[in-house]
Amino acid sequence: LFRSVMHLKTELSEDENFIRNELPEDVQELFDLLIQDYQHRIASLQTQYDHQRFRHSMESLEQVEKLEKARNLTGKSLHLLERTVTDLKKTKATLPALTDIQSQIKDMKAFLAPKEKPSPLFSEAIRIFLESKDTTVKSTVVKSYERTFKRFLEVCGDKPMRDYTGADVGHFKALMEQLPESYGKQRNDTRTVQEFVADAKKRKLARISGKSVKNHFTKLSGLWKHFLLRDL
Fold it and tell me: Which GO MF terms are attached to this record (predicted)?
């Protein structure tokens, strides 16, 4: 899909006015319609591409949340199994029954045990991630990543990457959705997310668009994907 968009853009890269002026007058109107049609197709393909990127980003976040839920469920199951072992010992249950449950407990503890590879703090992860982008993206794009990560730090604090939960993500999303419509238009504004939201509520300001919130999550998903692939 992305290659299709770029191909169409290349086709239209020549100066349209120069080409148009070389055509007979009775063909120029047809040429204008053709250009408009191509531009519409490009916009449509770009929109589809953006939607696919966002869907993939949200799926990455959902995977993190599912893993956290699995760990929580395993922790509860482990507690119940340990209680069961205690009860079975009291009733002098047969050895195979105890052995089977104890084996399950061992597997669960292994799943819940912290991984040996350390998980970097979010602030350190930002530095590593942005350094990997320096030579591949424009400085303005890097700055936009930095702004998103700064806001996440303000809301959720600086923790190891693995320690963030779905609750953190939900809290961040809820606050970002409450930002005023004017957010980001004054680069020298030093207020925190919480201060922006409090002011927006007090003054009953219009809120930021859903598209802007999605853009922040796309950037966060890129960061998490970078470290998930490296098991950090």
Answer: DNA binding
